[in-house]
Amino acid sequence: MLTLDNGQARRIFLDRHGLSDAPVGEAKGAALHGLIHDLGFVQLDSINTVARAHDLILFSRRQRYRPKALKHLYERDKALFEHWTHDAAVIPMEFYPQWHLRRQRDAEKLRARWRNWRRDGFEKRFQNVLDQIAAEGPLSSSDVGKGETRGSGGWWDWHPSKTALEYLWRSGALCVVGRDGFKKRYDLTERVIEQHLHDPANCPDTAATIDWCCDQALSRLGFATHTEIAAFWDHVTPAEARDWCAEALAAGALEQVQITGADGSVKLAFARPGLDQDPARDKAPTGRLRVLSPFDPALRDRNRAERLFGFNYRIEVFVPQAKRTFGYYVFPILEGDRIVGRVDMKAFRNEDVLRVSALWPEGRIRWGSGRQRAFEAELERLCKLAGVSKVAFEDGWLCASAQNYL
């Protein structure tokens, strides 16, 4: 049985996630679409301390990327659609038929769940919402349900027509066609998606969707357990992914491999035959230091990130300030095939500055002058994405254990 040492496993994993090569090249149009296709999807998130998650995910792989390129690809070119994986994401339009099973399952699951803990009567709003959008064109949640009781607008307090909008989107009658700020605009699916992509008669059945999801997930992971395969798109259940792996293993389409973790432990995973000949196994990633989004696809699975990189990360947005170990929204720092630190920083656009309030090198990482220069160069590049022109380091920004290295 093939055993990958930890360095080999990291290199293959980073290669599959577009983080081995220097972040250069075109970052709009077909090139951007190709990048998103290779990743599978890009998670959307509204927090904008430096840049929104989707923008930083793309910027970290193509530093010529600017947010308007994604907006054009999504809203003008209609080369992407928005739906859910493990969270809201933009996805290549050619994958739309593979979301048929997800829309069916969401229709069943969400109707029962939201009937129990959403505002009563959202199902009665379906036709009104559809008729209004048919007559008026794309609408947001503030355009529907006039006169309905509205609370704070939080996730827990949607008005019935807002709930109807979300349900009709998740189950397929509506599509999100773009966002104003971060507010979604919805339109009728038949006005947005080409007939051959949304027609149920052309959509794959359950077995074909499971096969596609598992096959494509493994292609983008390099190696994975059946639960990691199931979690990639979050369409199929772990049991369905386990059965798919068992069948593929018996047919010789998969093999089991041993993956060595950062702590030296070994874990079984599935891979395609020939992983021992994969060029990425012995290809050293670029040494370019870069800041990653906390929602980067390479780090989204926190347990796998800890196992492969020895990087224990938990986002603390919802943790009271006094109980945080690090900070509100802390960014991992990648260098080569290692996570070398994490940084707490925020863009103050009214002051035209990116302020670094704290940096923590990871264990055994020496934060010397060379690494500091590389870090400052990356911050200068980030300023362009954040919409500011200068960087400022606050007093006490470097953790005490690293201060003697500079």
Notes on the protein architecture:
By secondary structure, the chain is α+β, with helices and mostly antiparallel strands. 37% of the residues lie in helices and 18% in strands. It is built from 14 helices and 13 strands. The chain has helices spanning 6-16, 29-39, 53-59, 67-76, 100-117, 126-136, 160-171, 189-192, 195-198, 206-221, 226-233, 238-250, 302-309, 369-386, and strands at residues 3-4, 42-43, 80-84, 88-92, 174-180, 183-188, 255-260, 266-271, 289-291, 330-335, 338-348, 353-361, 390-393. The strands form 4 sheets. Strands 9-10-11-12-13 form a 5-stranded mixed β-sheet, covered by helices on one side. The termini are far apart.
Please, what is the average pLDDT? Answer: 93
Proportion of strand residues: 15-25%
Number of helices, where a helix is a run of at least 4 consecutive DSSP H or I residues: 14
Taken in chain order, the helices and strands follow as EHHEHHEEHHHEEHHHHHEEEHEEEHE
Main sheet makeup: 5 strands, mixed
Would you identify the regions where 5 or more consecutive residues have pLDDT less than 50?
A: none
| Termini gap | 45 Å
Shape: globular
Q: How helix-rich are the residues, as a percent range?
A: 25-40%
Rg (CA only): 22 Å
Structural class: alpha+beta
Tell me the quaternary state. Answer: single chain
Adjacency order of strands in the biggest sheet: 9-10-11-12-13
Beta strands, count: 13
